[in-house]
Write a structure and sequence with these properties.
Structural class: mainly alpha
Shape: elongated
Distance between the termini: 63 Å
Mean pLDDT: 78
Number of strands: 2
CATH topology of the domain at 80-132: Arc Repressor Mutant, subunit A
CATH class of the domain at 80-132: Mainly Alpha
Radius of gyration: 22 Å
Oligomer: single chain
CATH architecture of the domain at 80-132: Orthogonal Bundle
Length: about 130
């Protein structure tokens, strides 16, 4: 018996197929509903049980893994690359451009930090100039 259930509510059946193949072999049950079927299933009433807290209305819609964000992409959600880039920049500035110390603080190797600095086009010399100013 699976412990996790994913409900896919869409008119595009291919989204359901991709979701199902993504979770295949992970003990996840994936169910497909069209928006009309979902409304019927909900019955327009509350699904709350006695004493339960109300559920926040609306779903947090995220892009499918490996897919570029669309117009429906939630503005407050940032990609892992954005978060990683920001963390690296903050560490470099915190240690005044000392990449060895920044790598230690981030828990990664120095070579990894150099590669990521190049990947994200981060200029460590700006942190050194800030220190001199």
């Amino acid at each position: 018996m699976s412990r996790t259930k994913v409900y896919v509510v869409t008119d595009d059946y291919s989204v359901f197929e991709r979701t199902r193949s993504f979770y295949q072999g992970q003990d996840v049950q994936v169910e497909y509903f069209t928006p009309g079927q979902w409304e019927q299933r909900q019955g327009g009433g509350s699904n709350l049980t006695m004493g339960a807290q109300p559920v926040e209305q609306g779903a947090k819609i995220l892009p499918f893994p490996g897919q570029a964000p669309s117009a429906t992409h939630v503005a407050g959600v940032r990609t892992i690359n954005e978060l990683e880039s920001d963390a690296i920049e903050k560490a470099i500035f915190e240690f005044n451009g000392n990449l060895t110390e920044a790598a230690k603080a981030l828990g990664i190797g120095r070579a990894t930090l150099y590669r990521k600095v190049k990947q994200y086009n981060i200029d460590p010399s700006l942190a050194r100039k800030k220190r001199a100013a």
